[in-house]
Predict the 3D structure of the following.
Amino acid sequence: MKNNQFQQGLMGLPEPERRKYPRIPTDQVLTIAPAGRDQVLAQGRDVSAGGIRFQVTGCEIELGEVLTVTFEIGQEQLTVSGRVAWATETDAWVTDIGFEFDRTDSVSMAKLERITSQYEALAVD
C-alpha cells in the first residue's frame, strides 16, 4: 500500500525540462518539402535553435524522413533541412511533427540561436 502511494506521489511531480533550447511559440504558416514530393503547407507551433514543431493536414510524414522547411523567424525567412524526430497523429487527418534541424548551414544556425536567445531574455524580464 505504501509503495502504491509513493508511486502516485511521484506521478504528480513535474518532469525536469529536457530541452536544450528555448521554444518560441508561433502560429505561422510554413512550407515543408519532403524529398521528391511537392511542397506542402503546415501550421507552425513552436520553434527553437534545434528544431520546429508543426502540424500538417492530409499528408503522410514518416519518422526519420528528411524534409526542407521554410519559415520566418524575427524578420527573416529561413530554409533549413533536417529530419522528423517524432510524429503523432492528433486525429485522422492531422499529424503533429517534431522536426530536428540537422543540416542547417552555420549562418542559419547562428540566426536561430541569436533570435531564440533574444526571445528567452525578453521572456525572463
Remarks:
- The helical segments are 2-11, 106-124.
- The longest strand covers residues 76-89.
- The domain at 20-124 is CATH 2.40.10.220 (Thrombin, subunit H).
